[in-house]
Each structure stands twice: as C-alpha cells, then as structure tokens.
Write a structure and sequence with these properties.
The complex is a heterodimer of chains A (233) and B (225).
Chain A lengths: L1 H26 L3 E10 L10 E6 L10 H12 L6 E3 L1 H7 L16 H5 L4 H7 L2 E25 L2 E22 L4 E22 L6 H18 L5
Parallel strand pairs in A: 2-3, 2-4
Antiparallel strand pairs in A: 1-6, 4-5, 5-6
Helix pairs in contact in A: 2-6
Chain B lengths: L1 H19 L1 E5 L13 E8 L7 E7 L3 E8 L1 H13 E7 L12 E13 L1 H4 L3 E13 L5 E14 L5 H23 L2 H10 L9 H15 L3
Parallel strand pairs in B: 1-4, 2-5, 2-6
Antiparallel strand pairs in B: 3-4, 6-7, 7-8
The chains are: A alpha/beta (233), B alpha/beta (225).
Amino acid sequence: MISQSFQATSRLSRSAQLLVSIAGLTLLSGCVTSRVENSREGMTGIRANESVVIMAKSYHVGNETEDKYISCVESALGRGKNGLNVIPHRTFVDSLFPWFEPRTAPAETKGLPKLMKRPGVAARIREQGVRYIIWLDGDTDKVAGGGSLSCAAGPGGGGCFGFAWWQKDADYDASIWDLDELESAGTITADVSGTSFMPALVVPIPLIARTQAAACKGLANQLRAFIVSEEAA
Amino acid sequence: MKVMLRKALPGALLALLLAGCGSSVTLDPPTIPKPLIESIPLHIALRIPAEFESFVHEEELLGNEQWTIDLGRSNAEFFEQLFGYMFDELTVLSADDDESQFQFDALVEPSIDAFEFSVPNQTKTDSFAVWIRYRLKVYDPEGQLVENWPVSAYGKSLTTTMGGSDALRRAAVLAMRDAAALMIIRFDPDELIRSLGSGTAAHEGSSSEDTDTVQVTVIEGDNGD
C-alpha cells in the first residue's frame, strides 16, 4: 500500500516537474537589445494642468508608425503615479480638424506660428492644456529569419519538429515640440533589436522577443524623464 | 441520390474556392469633424449627382482577386456635412432638381473622376491605400462656370488584427478627410466671392497641374495659404 502510494506520488511529481519545465520555457523570451538616446535642444518641464499628445508623422512623407505603437506609448506615458496627462491622438486631431491631418499638419516647428494664428487653433490647444506634441517616426520590421520547422498530424496524433528563428528591429524617433515656446525641445531615438526562437520537439515552444513592446516602454520612460526632469513644476 | 451528390460536390467546392478569392467591403457614411474655420458668407447650392447615392467600385486585382467596395451614400453625406460646415447657408439639390427654382450665390457640382485602391499583396507592405479624385465645378447663379478643380485625395491604413476590410474602410475615410482638408484650403473665401461677383470665369478650365502645385505646397507644411 505504501509502495503504491509512493509510486503515485512519484508519477505526480514527474508530471509536475514536466509542467513546470514547459511553463518555465514558455515564460522565457527571446533576446532583446535596446538603445535609447536623447538629444536636448531646450528646457522642458510640465505643470499638473498641462498635457501631451503623441502623433505619428505623416504617411504622405513615407512614415509607417503603427497605430498600436502610438496607443502603447500613450498608455505607458500616462500610467503610474508619475504619469503625464495624455490626450488621445484621434481626439486631438478631430478637435483641430483639418489642421493636423496627414496633409496639413506642420512638418517643422517653423510652421507653428502660422498655424497658431488660424482662427480658433490656439484657443482649442489651450483648452486641452496641450504643452507638448510628440511626433513619432519609424516602425517595427522583420529583418531576418531562418531555420526549418514542420508539423504533421495523423489519426494517431500529431506533432512538430525543427527549429525556426526570426529577428525584428524596432527603430523609432520622437521629436518633442514645445507649444509654449513654439520650438523643438529635442529628440529621442529608440533602436531595439529582438530575436525570437521556436524549437519544436513534438510541441513547439515559442520564445518570443517582444521587440516593439520593449521599444514602447524604453521610449515612454525616456520621454517622461526628458519632459519632467528640468523645470520645476 | 449519391450520384447527384457526387456531381454537385465538385461544383460546390469550386464555388466555395471562388468565393474565397473575392472580398466585399461596405463603407458606412463617414462623420467629418466640425472644421475649425470661419464659415464663408455665401449661400451654396450643392447638386448631388446620382452616382453619389450608391457608388460601387469593382476591380479584379492581379491573381484574380475580385474586390467590391460599396461606398453607398458616403460621398453624398460627406459633401453635405462638409459644405454645411464651410458655408453660411446650404441647399442640397438632387440630380433631377431644376436649379433655376432656387436662390443661391453659387452652385457646386462634385463628381468622381477616379477611385483607386491598393492592397498589401500588391505593395508588399502591411498597408491598404485609397485614392479618390473628385472634381468640383462651381457655377454662378447665371450658370456660368467659374471654377473647375480636381481634388486628389489619399488615405492609407495599416492592416489590423480586425482584418483587411477594416483597414480599407479606414483608408477610404482618411481619403475623404484628406479631400475635405484640400477643399477647405482651396476654397479661398475672398477669391471665390471675387470671382462670383465679377461674373467672369477666371478659373474656368484650370489645369490639374495648377492644383497639384497647391497640394505639394501643403504637404511641405506651408498649410496651403
């Protein structure tokens, strides 16, 4: 009786170990390397009643920044007790229609004085307390990949065998425009490279590098530090 | 019965396969935000052409992929909203209405010169793009053509997890917003009032090159003045 109970416990223990191993492998992620740098052109700072807007540079000039990346940076900047007030970009663009459409938005800070003189524009920006517009440029691309992985299924079951990998690069630039001074406050660049792996021995085990998420978090942290660090609120 | 099934099955499978090669997208009428502009003090009659009531674009792409894009009343509602915001007073005329029965400062007749789109397979990107080339003809109350403008609008949207149809709809709406921005910039109140007041066809037959120059200036951040 004792022997049977021991064998059952041993089988349970082996199953648990297997599950833990699989879970551990699944939790492992691919390799990510990131570099975030900034270049300051002017003093910054933000008051409690001021806010920021995250915008994508125009697709008319070839930019392909993903909507979900903008939403990610918006969310990351606004999160936590040190979070900034972030106006959702679509709300901002609609409230100033048509002056921030891809075709009409100012491409450089020298277009800001003229824009602010348009009827109602300065007042609408002031109503929303927008102090900084952050223009994002860049995207995440798959730059390399390889390996071989094949799967098969039959009446008796199925499985996969092989090894595949791929590399993604996320390169984003953020230009920070100060709407009080009507000039550029500086730029931040985030270059993140991530390699994902998928070994498969019956069951494929994805080890995914969250490249874009790392670029989002890195850029948002740097943006927050850049904006709040210098001037007393 | 078995023989009938055996005969019908390949046909049904083929129909299923062919159905899989086609895509159909229906666009809900867009909502254009109220523009941040001063409305132009003119009473405009807007003639909505019959094609704007139910515009359907069908195209077979490379690889025999059949696309049907049904814009429905989108163009009609887009122009009605936009011109309602842009001018002090707006009278909407249908294709059959006799304009001589109405009072107005100018009659505007929009039409579509061309509608084009691209899908990710063609461009090897993750984007859907839509181009719409509208034409606006502006007549004075005597029926003389005073303006004739092509308006080339463009919208682009990345594919999302919601699928290609949503991205194509979004690209079409962005193209309409782009057209709205161009028209707001192009309708210079002083110039329009002057050309209507003088009764001369100052811009009649103006070439597309003229308008393209204006558009390039706008892209470069000059805001089009």
